[in-house]
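Ticket #4471: structure output looks truncated?

Reporter: J.K.
Steps to reproduce: submitted the chain below (314 residues) through the standard prediction queue, then opened the result file.
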Amino acid sequence: MLETVTDGGSLLRYANTSVFPTADNSSEFNPDHENNITKPHRCLQILYDDIGRSRVRYWDVMLLVPNVAFLVFLMWKLPSARAKIRLTSSPIFVAFYILVFVVAAVGITRAIVSMTVSTSSAATLIDKVLWEITRFFLLAIELSVIILGLAFGHLESKSSIKRVLAITAVLSLAYSITQGTLEIRFPDKHLSAKDFNIYGHGGRHFWLASSCFFFLVYSLIVILPKTPVRERISLPSKRSFYVYAAILSLLNLVQGLGSALLCANIIEGLCCVDVTTFLYFSVFAPLIYVTFLKGFFGTMSGSQLLALIPRTTL
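Returned output as attached by the reporter:
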């Protein structure tokens, strides 16, 4: 994201993701370059600075390396994973494994395209679309875990899993389309400058609203076992499920605080969203693997593996 904040004639620039040339219609926003801050904020520099004389940015490499490492790990585990899947025939873990595999591949593709955008004007739109595709799969995994754990944990048939995945796909698609529409068709003028056009995650206000929403959702999940609701519905019994929810709750809290600071034209908020963006787009898929799939491809039996999807009331 690149954001330009004007206050009292001074210009604060901060970015998140990649920097691209803008189209000619950027005349709506004409910053006063004489009043620009001479030394950009360090949380901005790390996002657009190139490595040496190359046109490859540190930010893209930072997002690329963990995704490549995770994809290599998945490829290395693929033979044993396929053997384990044949033995258990668990549609839940097959779905999760495919999703994290695709997320890693899409993340790598997005980073590579971002590294080459300076030589192609069409790559700007492609990069934004790839960001939305990546977000779509990540959100689909999030919602799948929550729905399978809280609502459909007792369902183990392939048809029930397909229904859950269909629901999460529709919800994730709706979110991604909304975010993509705001990003491409109705970009926030504060998230672009005269010389740059950056992927802005749908704008500061959309980012703030979505972060607050997901923070409330995951916080509610964390406290559910301490409420009377546990006497009425079946809740997950595995501690790892609540650790997963707590981590995402904290991530969205920090992201929401950072977005709020950006909405208030406070440049330090960029540091918060930098960290949360990096963690979400590079570490989230491995987190899913460690939390829900590591035991599946380890030494656990089929019945123990299915226990990862909770079915009993605490």
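Triage note (M.O.): checked the attachment and the full token line is present. The domain at 2-300 is CATH 1.20.1070 (Rhopdopsin 7-helix transmembrane proteins).
Status: closed, working as intended.
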